[in-house]
Each structure stands twice: as C-alpha cells, then as structure tokens.
Amino acid sequence: MGRVLAAIDASPCARPVVQTALSVADFFEGSVVALHVREKGPDLALEAAHEAGVELLETTGSPIEGIVTAAEDPRVVAVVLGARGVHDGPRPAGHAALEVITRVNKPVVVVPPDGTTRTRIARVLIPLEGTDESSQAIADTIALARRHDIEVLVLHVHAPETVPAFEDQPHHEVPAWEGEFVARFVSVPHAHVDVIQRVGVAADRIVTVAGDMKADLIALGWNQNLAPGRAQVVREALTHSTIPVLIVPTPPPGD
C-alpha cells in the first residue's frame, strides 16, 4: 500500500492537515504517515499525529527540503500540506506550499488554514479547460474518484466569446455538447459524471461553483509553472478556496 504524506508543522494548522490526509487516504489508496520538520515551540505536530493515530516521522533542517526529499520515496503516492506552509507564513499560500507544488512531481493536496475539515471526500469538482493536456493530467484522478464512488463534477468555463450557440433546440443541443466534451476530455462515461457549464473567467468561477455545489475537494491539473502570468487558476484556487485543493502535475511527454 502506498503512503499519503501529511506534512505538518508545530501550529494549529497541523490538525486539519492530518484530518484531510485521512479523508483522502482511501481516494489515493494509501495509508497516512505524518512528517514533521522539527522547529522550536509547542509540539502540536506530535499531538496532532497522536490524536489521529498515525505514524509520525521527524527530521530537522529546511521544511521545504524535508518535504521534497520525503516525497521522493517511491512509496509516497500523494502529499498533503497546509496552505501556509509554515506556521508564520502568509495566508493563503505561503512560500513553502508554492515551492513544494512546483518541485514535487506527485499529487499535492493544499489545505486552507480556515477551511472546513471533511471526514470523507464525497464530491470532487474537476475544472477542465477542454485541452488534451489538462484532461491527461486529471484522468487518473477521475478514475480514482469513480472507483471509490466519489461524485465527479466536471466544470467547464466558457469565455464569453467562445460560448456555443444553442439556438434551435437547446434541450437537445446542450446534452449533445456535454456528451461530446466528456467523450473527448473525460476518462469515464458521461453517465458517471455531471457536467457544469459557466461563462466568465475560470479563475474567478471555480471557487464559487465549488461552494454552490458543496464540493469537498477541487482537483486541478497543471504544468508546475508559476512564472508571471501563468497558473492563474491554481493561484486563485489556493488564494480563495475554503476546501482542500488537489494539484496534479501534468505527466511528462511520452508518459
């Protein structure tokens, strides 16, 4: 069985990180192991791991390097960490969290510091922009969700200038468009997912739709590039989401 690595610090953020790791463990088909890069102050990391009944690994040095190194273990299938990264980091996504998601080539779940902790992931929102690259990145996530009877909501946000014209028979044309979209970009049959369409800017719509639909998790595929002007959807989700955000790296070419 693989490992879901819960990277926790010595702050109150440790508990929601561990609890989120437990809630996604079945999703990733792994068991939870907590990692703490020891710092000064109250040992809330030890308390959080003990309360959750999970093994705690401790190390010293740079928190970022400790997490990245631990994530390289082939047994690790996913990493869960707080959005702040370290207890005195800025809200919502600290330097540590941003660096980890760019350096760890595995799924990373980022937990907001003031969000609601779920005991189980029942509904996941998966925004898809309608490209082969984005669909490939998230295909395994969709398959895992369906395998564990997790409801999959596929969101596509149309730019105002690209909205399909459903003029003659929208009650037929909308389902037809959705069926074609799912057939091309989703790895499971249309009957196993719900498609949601919105118009606007994707970065602005995703968090709102997640709240409206009472999703437990947002899953985003990306190419691990945080250069200026890139990854706006990822940045906005990490900034504004009150539920955990799963960041899935795009597979390398040829995979």
Strand content: 15-25%
| Shape annotation | globular
Roughly what is the average pLDDT, rounded to an integer? 83
By helix and strand content, what is the structural category?
A: alpha/beta
The residue ranges in which pLDDT falls below 50 over 5 or more consecutive positions are 85-92
Between the first and last Cα atoms, what is the distance in angstroms? 23 Å
Q: Order of strands in the sheet with the most strands?
A: 3-2-1-4-5-10-9-6-7-8
SSE topology string: EHEHEHEHEEHEHEHEHE
Please count the helical segments: 8
CATH top level of the largest domain is Alpha Beta
Tell me the helix content: 25-40%
Largest beta-sheet details:
10 strands, mixed
Total number of distinct structural domains: 2
How many strands?
Answer: 10
What fold name goes in the CATH topology slot of the largest domain? Rossmann fold
Tell me the Rg in angstroms. 18 Å
